[in-house]
Amino acid sequence: MVSLPATVSIREVGPRDGFQNEPETIPTDRKVELIEALARTGCKRLEVTSFVRPDVIPQLADAAEVLARIDVPEDVAVSVLVPNERGLENALALLEEARGQGGRKAFDEINVFLSASETHNQKNVNRSIEQSLAGLEIVLKRACEQGLRCEGVISTAFGCPYEGHVPPERVLEIARRLHAAGAREIGFGDTTGMANPRQVGELFAQWKDGLEEVQLTAHFHNTRGQGLANVLAALQAGVQSFESSFGELGGCPVPPGATGNIATEDLVSMLREMGIETGIDLEALLACAGRVREILGRPLGSHTLVAGPVDWRI
Ligand code: ZN
Questions:
Q1: CB-side exposure of 268: number of CA atoms within 13 Å?
Q2: What spacing in Å lies between the alpha carbon of 171 and ligand 1's midpoint?
Q3: Angle made by CA atoms 286, 292, 296, in degrees to the nearest 5
Q4: Please, are residues 248 and 301 in contact by the beta-carbon 8 Å criterion?
Q5: Are 259 and 301 a contacting pair, CB within 8 Å?
Q6: Confidence (pTM)
Q7: 297-314: per-residue pLDDT in tens?
Q8: Using 50, 70 and 90 to split pLDDT, how confident is the model at 164?
Q9: What residues sit around ligand 1, an ion, with C-beta below 5 angstroms?
């Protein structure tokens, strides 16, 4: 009998990972509405936007406005994705401004990312892994000095569409460097949905041994329909922290077609049926997914949104 955790923590990444991949930019008003609704589902961690160059990702060009406008409960940790030193400058300027006004902090956490595959990293951020690490080490150090909690996300940790196999030792080495620079949490991204459950179980068991003081987070994409199977394998390996996207929004700009984070409502539904507590109200979350489907005007990948929650018991 494999033991499973009693509770799981979920970071909702739809407003960043999801919205940035929509061909049509979602109006700021709608983003604010959706983020505020998500923050009231019981979800305690929310990635709301990214400080990327507006000419590269125009969908998130309103990052500062979104952060200034959202009204979320105090106990919800708001995080932003910071790609590089320049992004951090912009994020810190906003933090400074919010502090000056004496209100709530603009955000609580930053997430940085790089790829464990040289080719994917080059295509995604136009840097070598070593160049990325050197920059992110500075970013993490400065963010920590500002009292921000930091997560380092390692993309293509389970395989790369260009290079195929990604050596797990390289992933571990990158994780150790990010941790040494200040990241308290490491996210392992299956960016293009290449992971399988057996591999996930084996790799997390291996990484856990090398990263005792770090919170390990799994970030699965459902590109090939194996997302929730991979969640189960991660749970069995002792992982208690996941990232997912309401409505199964999201994807990865490189390569094209790499779509869909696992849907938060599918994840919450499965965990609820398994008796694992997430703190998230599934019905409230489904209302958010239904609303974004209405705003986008197209069917979404989420299964629970279509079928409804399991509300009966044998
Ligand atoms: Zn993702």
A1: 30
A2: 17
A3: 145
A4: yes
A5: yes
A6: 0.95
A7: 989 999 999 999 987 654
A8: very high
A9: 17
